[in-house]
Protein 1
Amino acid sequence: MDTRPFLGQPDIGIKFTAIFVCGSLFYLYRDDIRYDSRLAVLAGSGLIVLMFSSLLAEAAVAILGGYVLFWFAFNVRSPTLAGIGHKVDLSYGMYLYAWPVQKLLIWLNPGISPWLAFIETTAIAGLLAFGSWRLVEKPFLSLKAVFVPAMITSSQKMQ
C-alpha cells in the first residue's frame, strides 16, 4: 500500500524536522553561543567545502550556514541593509509567493538548475510581493490608524 497520500514523503519530513531542530537548538543555546568573526569565517569556509559533499551538504547548511546567518544578523551593522524595507516591505509577500512560484517553475521545467530557479523565483516572487504590498498590505495597514485610536479610546472608557 502506498502511504504517501497519508504521510507525504517521510525522508523529506525528516530533513525538515532536522533543520527545524537545528534552529531550535540555536535558539535554546542562544546565550551560550559566541558569534565571533573568526568562527564565522571558519564556518563559512567549512560550508563552502561541504557543499560539494552530497552526504554532508544539508547538515552543513543547517549548522554552519545557520551560524554564519546568525553571526551576520547580530554583528553586521549597515545603514544600507537597515534601510531595506523602510518604505516598501516585501517580506511577507516574498514569504507568501516564493514557494508556489518555485514549485510552478520546477513543475514547468523539471530540469531547471537550482541557480536559475533561485533567480527566477526571486524576480517573480518579488514582483508579486510588490503588487501585494501596494494593492493589499499597505492599504490595510493604513486602516490601522483609523481603528487603533478608536480601540484605545473605547478600552480606556471601559476602565
Protein 2
Amino acid sequence: MKELDFPAERAEQRLYDIWSFVAAAVLAAFYLATTVYISYHRLLWWDELFTVNIARLPHWTTIWAALAHAVDSMPPIYYMVVRMFDKLFGYGEVAVRLPSSLAMVAGMLITFDCARRLTDGLHGLVAFSVLTCSFLPYYGYEARPYAICFMLAALALWVWTCTRGDRRWPAIFFGAIFFLGVTFHYYFVLYLVPYALWETTRWRPWHPLSRKLIAGIVGGVVPAALLSPLILSFSHFFPAWFWGRPSLWLIGKTFSDLFPSGLLLLALIMVWIVFVSGEGKRVVLGSVQPSEAVGWLSLCIPLAGFVAAELTTSAFTARYYIGALPGIAVAVSCCLWRHFSVEYRVTLGIFLLLASAGVAKQMTGVRDPESVNMNRSQTLTRQYMNVEDSLRQDGKRFILVPGGMSLESEYYLERPEEHILVLRTSPQGSWARKFGSNLAQYFPLHYWELDDLKRHARETALLMPTSQTLDAMKQSGFKVEVRFSEPMEVVYLQ
C-alpha cells in the first residue's frame, strides 16, 4: 500500500474506477429514495417530537431558553437546521427528517471517496457497503442529529487522511469540523479519540498531523465552552439513573448495536475467503498505515464514551458513537486491500455480500415502514387513533394518556389543546413532575391533578393507565370500568 498520510495523485486510473463511481451513485440514490419513502410512511415518535416541538418554537431565543430549562439534550444548532427545512418543505415527517437523510447519504459518499483514495474504487465500495450493514440507515429517517454527526465524522476522517500536509488549511478545516460537530451533539468531541491515540504514541510537535489534532482539540473545546450553560443545566437537572446508565454489559451491546448482523456477515465473509482465495499465491503484506490504524482506533470511541459516562455524564447509548462508523468502514477496506489486492474476486464477493445484506434490510423497511417501531410507538399511536372516535361517541370529552404518549397524542390527534391531557400522579416535588412542568412551558401539553379529574370524571377516559394511576383512582373513591382491553386498555371512571 502506498503512503497514506500524504496520498499523491495515482499514477494510473484503473478502468473499474469509473463503474465504482457509478455504483456508489446508484447505491446513494437508492438509499436516499428509500429513506425518504420510509420517512413519509412512518409516524414521528417521542424523541423526534422533542425535535419538532423545539424547532417550531417562535424564535431562536425561545429555543435557547427551552434548552436552558433542560427540555432536551441537544445543542441549539440542530433545531435551527430542522426549523429551516420545516419551513422550506412544509410541515411534515419528511421535512424534519430530510436533514438526516441527506447527511446520511453524503457521509456514505465521503467515506467511499476516502477509502477509494487510499485503495481503489472497489474497496471504496466495500467501505460504502459496510456502512449499509450498520445501524446507520435507521438514523437516516429519524429526526435527530446522529446522521449529521456521522457525516461530519466522515468528513473529518477524509481531511485527516486525504489532504496534503504541507499547508495550513487542512488543520483549520479539521478544527472547523469539530467546532461544527459539537454544536450538533456534545459527544462529538469524543470522535477525536482515535486521532489523539495515534498521535500520542508518536508525538511530533508541529508535524502536519499534529497540527490537525491541536486544531481539532481547539475546535471541540471552544463550542463546548460557549454552550456550557446548556450542558450544565441539563446535567444538573437529569438524575444519573434517567437513561443510558453505563455498565459493562452495555459496552458489549454497543458494539453489537453498531453492526446488528455483524457476526453472521463476518462468518459468511470468512467462508467466502476460504473458498475463493487462490492457493499457492504469496502475498507480501504491507504494514498497517496511519489511515487504517486510525480507522481501527475508532473502536475506542465507545470505550472513551463509557469512561466519560462513568466520570461525568452518566449517559451511555450506542447512537452517541455513530461517528466511529466511517473509521471502521475505511479500516476494513484498507485491511482487505493489504491482504487481497491481487485477489479481486475476494473483495468483489465481499462487496456483493455486504451490499446485498444492506439493500435487503432497507427493503424490509420499505415494504413495511411501521416495522421500524421504536419502543412500539408506531403501534400505540395507531391504536390510539383507531379508538379515538369510539371514545368520542361515548361522550368522553377528555382523554388522559400516559406520559410516554403525551407528545404523540398532542401531535396526531384532533383538537389536542382541548382533549389530550396527561394525569400527574407523581408526588409533589418529584423529578417527573418538575420535568413535566418544564415541558409545559414550551410544549402544548396539559396536566391535571386528581381534583381536576374528579370534576370531569364522567367525561374522561383513561388510556393505558398504569397500576399507580389505577391505585390512585381507587383510593380517591372512583369506580373503574374497563371499556376496551384490545387493542389497548381503556378505562372509564364512575
